[in-house]
């Protein structure tokens, strides 16, 4: 009986040891797999920067390959001219340009489309960097659990933008001169349109640049909304890499080339040639009279849109002063690391 008990105990110990070894081997194999996966991921996404002699970190050569830029372009701000530069540079600088075309020229998407677009843009893994552009209001990618792109944009003095669009619908431009526009044949001036109280010239129609930066919330598109105005300013500061102004597009291009040379190397030289600096120019445009301007300046919508423009202009002037030399070339790196311990 004692011998039988002893045999059972020995067998139990042996089985326990076998199970322990199997568990340990499984754990080690799983650990090794995780380490290998981490190494692979770091090779693709987290490549460490190298150190320069002065202690400044050099950017990873791989990091630019994962760059996604989104230009949610405001209509009639010179966006066609700027995008033309991107299309001319994409082959040489090895990045892809994609136009986001929203049905019926809508500036907002349905909730399912917002989710699909955010997931698609964040997970489209191509070897080249990506440059998206389209007339789409700001979209908060983090709302959908997606990694956001770098946003850029251009805005324009609001009344100038509206007047340009008014005459564009009647006379077209030199980009596609033979295309018949929606208001072609209607020769009423902008001043007469305002004087007659036509809906097309209502000051509320200025409400476009604020909602474009505000986003997809319903209140963003309520003309004169203070909440939308504050949200637009917050998004500009927190979520945009750079916002320029149409009146200083050359400087905007120069800042981008200095900041993102992998994409925009050669952009300033290309812009200065003249072939891309005025790619789309309205065929005829009559400046509004002083009384027309005064009427707009009395509206809340103009005041908020103009204040937003001035806010963006101040920020761009500041960024430009910290980024460019007088000759429009980029400044040398202005920071470095030191006192690194242990050596």
Automatic annotation (TrEMBL):
Transmembrane regions: 12-29
Topology of this chain in the membrane: Single-pass type II membrane protein
Compartment(s) of residence: Golgi apparatus membrane
GO cellular component terms given for this protein: Golgi membrane
Keyword Disulfide bond attributed: yes
Gene Ontology biological process terms from the UniProt entry: heparan sulfate proteoglycan biosynthetic process
One Pfam family hit: Sulfotransfer_2
InterPro entries tied to this protein: Heparan_SO4_2-O-STrfase (IPR007734), P-loop_NTPase (IPR027417), Sulfotransferase (IPR005331)
Keyword Protein biosynthesis: no
Keywords (A to Z) from UniProt: Disulfide bond, Glycoprotein, Golgi apparatus, Membrane, Signal-anchor, Transferase, Transmembrane, Transmembrane helix
Source species, domain of life: Eukaryota
GO MF assignments: heparan sulfate 2-sulfotransferase activity
Subunit structure: Homotrimer.
Record-stated family: Belongs to the sulfotransferase 3 family.
Name of protein: EOG090X088H
Native species: Daphnia dolichocephala
Taxonomy of the source species: Eukaryota, Metazoa, Ecdysozoa, Arthropoda, Crustacea
Gene symbol of the encoding locus: EOG090X088H
